[in-house]
TrEMBL record, chains A, B, C, D:
Biological process, per Gene Ontology: organic acid catabolic process
Keyword GTP-binding attached: no
Protein name (database record): 3-hydroxyisobutyrate dehydrogenase
Location of the 3-hydroxyisobutyrate dehydrogenase-like NAD-binding domain: 164-279
Coiled coil: none
Classification lineage: Bacteria, Pseudomonadati, Pseudomonadota, Betaproteobacteria, Burkholderiales
Keywords, in A-Z order: NAD, Oxidoreductase
Residue positions of the active site: K168
Signal peptide annotation: none
An MF annotation (GO) of this entry: oxidoreductase activity
Length: 289, 289, 289, 289
């Protein structure tokens, strides 16, 4: 297929590489061109404008946040795009923006698919991402081979693109709550002189298997948060988006508010670029340790 | 071995049966004698006083709460007990009570082992409980064959009995936080018209495998909380104990306070005997649904 | 003085009337012209565009929210305005917008004064508002006679306009926290069968005199929230702005998050147009009453 | 009248002095006798047992906490007391203890009056306390002359003693919430470079007059918490009692939970003996300042 790719941060570049490896033609654009160059060596065509990438059979995008997406996917870009193009937005954006983009694309005959992903850059590099996709079924069918080159599994969530974003934000909120809980539990254990590792052995062997409790728990047990695999400030971004999505449907999320405050505490203490697990240090700090 | 057993609620009776099946002699006591009778049919000797059970090689206990334990394990009981007896307390009690009982037993030459368990009555019946045990190593060694008849695995947490209680309370707090989080996530999803089951499929297949997210999530998705497997009021009891243990070491647990308030809301609405998953209904109620 | 006035809601109209009564010439603009007409009968000139009002010696504005302010005070309006004009923005807007407007006005040689007010429409009608003003000292000096026609006291908070907005939001947060506290206290008292009025008599005669505790407390005691003097949805708007201002300086405000959730609960139950004191009903609902 | 007085801490001693000054005969008892001696110089009779004080026309008590009250007012003390004695308990105790004491006294024909007070030691010394009294009307009538010697006003709250305790705890919760709010507001203001004193001038001149906002606000503005007028650890005791009273009637008090966590943070940082206003420092610490 003839594919465009917009946004080559750590996640985007790994995805773009896997699309190339799968044999597709790829035009790539990034705001700072030097991040695009390594892909040229792999066969991609580096283009100078988002519009040049926003063409062909489908375009994939992975921009940093709502502001970047709003700036790039503006009216003029959509106006010049070929009708029937499929745009697959894999970034974690707000539900409100997803709704607005879906509307704006449809008004111009462009198919908008929301397909946010779960997994860190190393998972993206291994093409093992979990993808939650929503949008017009036919459009998703068309890009499914590309999604298969990026992830290990695509979950289909119906025809309204923003539903994929809601699920992604709910999942990230669940993650944030679990890490905050581990941090608080760690502070409780430390207060009574019990080793966090003993606790983790018990719960990860019984009720709480899986990567989250074992992985973040280990970082908290070691009180070691650098280098970050997933930065606290990115976790805060996701919690803010979850709170905004909940606000939009007048739904209180009290645990999300607690995590938000703990993450603000982390950022205020210069820990924003540390791993999300630094919530363990925040909980310890509250307890004077 | 010659064993006493005190406290024959749903959990206690299942444990006592498994001890009998493993071939041990068993004297059993319960405040209301009729709950003890069925065990007589299996070969147990029903006794009339806690003191008659508090003898032999070892005594196991599974009383409902701190108040029951304080009432039974009083100074006169300990005074008349044989020196060198091992008392294994499997109930979820406060850290403060565990410390007090450990002190009082030691003062009279009785070995006190805290061995709270994880698992519901059906798990107890299947002898598959997870046991966290702490206390004098030699005492635990002596009763290990009995623990093996009750559970599938015993985690050893050192020589201070209360450390087992801290781990148990931290684990239950982790459970409570996960259920509250599922409830809040469910309210967020419903607010945007997304099916809870779609969300559960995604997270239980990726970051959150294991029985907690799948099991409680399913109850919330079905909005079905009766009959309860684990009652909301028992969950509240555990969260209160976690908060008390944290207070004792001046450690804030903000997520635990949130869960406590949600559980109070459940009880205030007559949902105390429903399953712990009723936190999903509480979150929906806050959102006017 | 020759004065423009933009935004004639309940508060704006009362202020505009007092400016007229003080003998100033007034051009008024409102998005829906019919709200402006009654002022014509008092001598105001109704104009058709914001630009026609944004002229003369000074212009005062009282628009509903950030979105309205952004829409009206855009680049083209500022571009055509006379240099040296003083713009006094009396609305409660976000700190971020106040900073942006201050910057945009200064870039075009227009003086921007933030002068948010405290008091409800009846206080505005009586010209008894409390005004907190910040911006260039000389500009405030110039409009002080007009401010004196609107309020009973102007507090000067330095030369940075956004400082006035921060103080206003902190004051509204303080109010919101007090009302939430009264609501929770009321639920506690009711739970023990104690009359809220007895409690109010005690605290308003001792530690908590003043209009807030007596006034909102009385509404809660009567469980009577209509007609609203200050609507719950406006209170939520202010709490959101306080949280946003705190987020911008990485400052957790846990009490504000609690109030936000209670207000979302109110709106979700169709109580958004009831008086702010409806937080008492929310607290009672949480307690199953 | 012939009066006994039990408990001579800072508050108790001031009250006892005022009773003496009013011309009553006074027998005083304190656990450590040396605190009682200064009253002997003023004419009081120092006695060696609580029982010796628990006699005469009426006995007043002001013990530190529930544990002290339970230890002193036990079955044997009540058993030997004269029938028809009036016991006025002025301490801040739990609602549960108030109920229990009311029951135990009534069972032995002793009149139990709960009369907790509002005000610090300097207010007690000036005989300006605010008293909230509940219990048998005739009993209160009998001791009213003594209450008039201690306080400036007695509020009567009906015949159930515990109602006075509920009002007292609700009032202290209101105070705690106001101080926490001031602390959070201070952190918000500081984050934007606004002086706390400017904010205080505005709110204490308008919506929030009275001693609480001005007094605690000033301490926070000065970041000066020693010597304490009301210690943070005593504030925490009161918040715990409010939460326990709310728990007993299944009433969530989310703001109280927030204040509790902030106070635990203070104690964990060695600030327990500083003034309650140290909540301002806790809020600043969360914001990294």
């Amino acid at each position: 297929m003839d594919i465009g790719f917009i946004g080559l941060g750590g996640m985007g570049r790994a995805m773009a590489e896997n699309i190339l490896k799968a044999g597709h033609r790829l035009r790539v654009w990034n705001r700072s061109r030097e991040r695009a160059e390594p892909l040229a060596a792999l066969g991609a065509q580096v283009v100078d404008t988002p519009a040049a990438a926003f063409a062909g059979d489908a375009v994939f995008s992975m921009l940093a946040d709502d502001a970047a997406a709003r700036a790039v996917f503006d009216a003029s870009l959509l106006e010049q795009a070929p009708r029937d193009l499929v745009h697959v937005n894999m970034a974690t954006v707000s539900v409100a923006l997803a709704e607005a983009l879906a509307h704006d694309h449809a008004a111009r005959g462009i198919h908008y698919v929301a397909a946010p992903v779960m997994g860190r850059p190393d998972v993206a590099a291994a093409a093992k991402l979990t993808i939650v996709a929503a949008g017009p079924a036919e459009a998703i069918d068309r890009v499914q081979p590309v999604l298969d080159a990026i992830g290990q599994k695509t979950w289909r969530l119906g025809s309204l693109p923003q539903h994929a974003n809601v699920v992604k934000l709910a999942a990230n909120f669940t993650l944030a709550a679990a890490v905050e809980t581990l941090g608080e539990a760690s502070a409780l254990l430390a207060g009574h002189g019990v080793a966090m590792t003993d606790f983790l052995d018990v719960i990860t062997s019984s009720a709480f298997p899986g990567p989250v409790y074992a992985g973040y728990g280990k970082l908290i047990a070691q009180d070691s948060y650098e280098p970050a695999q997933f930065k606290a400030r990115l976790g805060l971004k996701d919690v803010r988006l979850a709170l905004a999505a909940a606000d939009a449907c007048t739904t209180p999320l009290p645990v999300a508010s607690v995590v938000r405050d703990s993450l603000l505490d982390a950022l205020a203490h210069g820990e924003g670029d540390m791993d999300f697990a630094v919530l363990g240090r925040v909980a310890a700090r509250r307890a004077g340790r």
